Amino acid sequence: MTILPVLMAAIAPGIALLSYFYLKDRYETEPIHLVAKMFLLGMVLVLPAIVIQHGLQYEFGEGSWFTSFVASAGLEEGLKWFLLVQLIYRHASFDEPYDGIVYAAAVSLGFATLENIFYAFLGSSSISSLLFRAFLPVSGHALFGVMMGYYLGKAKFTKDKAGWYLAVSLLLPLLWHGVYDLVLLKAKSNWLWIMVPLMLYLWIRALGRVHRANDRSPFRSVAAGSDDKIKL
Fold first, then answer.
1. Could you tell me the pTM of the whole model?
2. What element of type H or E holds 229?
3. I need a surface site. Which of 34, 199, 210, 224 has the fewest CB within 10 A?
4. How far apart are CA 139 and CA 120, in angstroms?
5. How many domains, the chain?
6. ∠ at Cα 44 (172, 210), nearest 5°?
């Protein structure tokens, strides 16, 4: 296989999913340069994650539960969450609940895209296997990002429970990411029968969060007022 088709197949799922969630912002889309920056920073996170994962596994071994919930989910979701809290949570562009979903999806999909590129060029992969990965690891990272971003949005715009929602924004994606990894490690022969319903459930929940976050936008009433003026 030539390099370009493999590279495009590795990159396309992440870009497509990010475009989908970006365009789902109904009221005030985010600055594209900031979304792209978070996507690229998500890619950068892969490198420290690999180094730390190897260190953790060398020190504590490679047990299924430890690998799933600490070395993989805990580390990866923790790095994404830390980046978002430090760079986006108080940013002026984060001005409606849905913005958390956009930026968290950007970081998560940047991470997943570089993972996919490594898989494409360091493993024995085909175009079909890369497209299959779009259903599992890439969309999995996207869905964990939606969870994280949804609760970051609730934390920012629900002041009396900000601490609680900040904790949930880290712990909930960590939990589901850990479950996802554990299924792949434990269910050697029948993992697909578990994974397909799991992914469908996570997609349904994610789309519900997308809808609810948009409904809580402070710009919703402004948009409705503009529509009324146009009708008049």
1. 0.90
2. helix 220-231
3. 224
4. 17
5. 1
6. 35
Asked if residue 227 belongs to a domain, the reply is no
Low-confidence ranges of the chain (pLDDT < 70): 1, 123-134, 221-232
For residues 178 and 74, is the Cβ–Cβ distance under 8 A? yes
Instruction: Please give the Cα distance from 209 to 147 (Å, whole number).
Output: 8
230 belongs to a structural domain: no
Over the stretch 137-186, which tens digit does the pLDDT of each residue have?
Answer: 899 999 999 999 999 999 999 888 999 999 999 999 999 999 999 998 88
Query: Per residue in 220-231, pLDDT tens?
Result: 765 555 544 544
For residue 26, the enclosing domain spans: 3-214
Q: What is the dihedral of CA 133, 39, 67, 127, to 10 degrees?
A: 20
What DSSP string runs through 34-77?
HHHHHHHHHHHHHHHHHHHHHHHHHHH---HHHIIIIIIHHHHH
Rounded Cα–Cα distance for residues 125 and 203 (Å): 26
Query: Which pLDDT does position 225 carry in this prediction?
Result: 52
- Does some domain include residue 220? no
